[in-house]
Each structure stands twice: as C-alpha cells, then as structure tokens.
Design goal:
The chain has six helices and no strands. The chain has 82 residues and is an all-alpha fold. GO terms for molecular function: DNA binding.
C-alpha cells in the first residue's frame, strides 16, 4: 500500500493521537482510519484535505509532519513569489 498510511501512522504515534480521535474529528468510522494506518487501504485523494483539517484541530504541528512524510521534498521546497 501507499505512503499515506505509513505517514499517518507515524504522525499519530508521534503526537499521541489515537485512531478513534482522528475518526471522530473527521466524522468517519474508526475502521476507515484503521485500514489506512495498517496499510490495508489507502485514503482517497479527496480524503487528504480532511485528514489535514482533523490533524490541525487535534495537534497543529502534526499537519506539517504528515505533509513532509507523505509528500517529502515537494513540501520542503519554498514556493516562488507570485
């Protein structure tokens, strides 16, 4: 399975967020988060913004770490001035 589940598991462990907390904050079933974290199913692309929003509510620092773990160097690069 994909990188999102690994990144999510690491972030939840690091910041002491349990799967149930994330599921409740996102308004989804805990089993869905369980599938993601245990790499049985990848979150859909449409779920990533919801994951970020929930992480922001539960532990704001977790958002950046998830993004770096999931997207790597693409997040670490500075965006050009517009």
């Amino acid at each position: 399975m994909g990188k999102a589940g690994k990144a999510l598991k690491q972030v939840l462990d690091t910041y002491g967020i349990n799967q149930n907390q994330l599921a409740i904050t996102m308004g989804i079933g805990r089993s869905t988060v369980h599938y993601w974290v245990n790499e049985l199913r990848d979150p859909l692309a449409e779920s990533i913004p919801d994951i970020l929003e929930a992480l922001d509510q539960l532990h704001p620092e977790a958002v950046q770490e998830f993004l770096v773990l999931y997207l790597g160097r693409f997040v670490q690069r500075e965006l050009p001035d517009q």
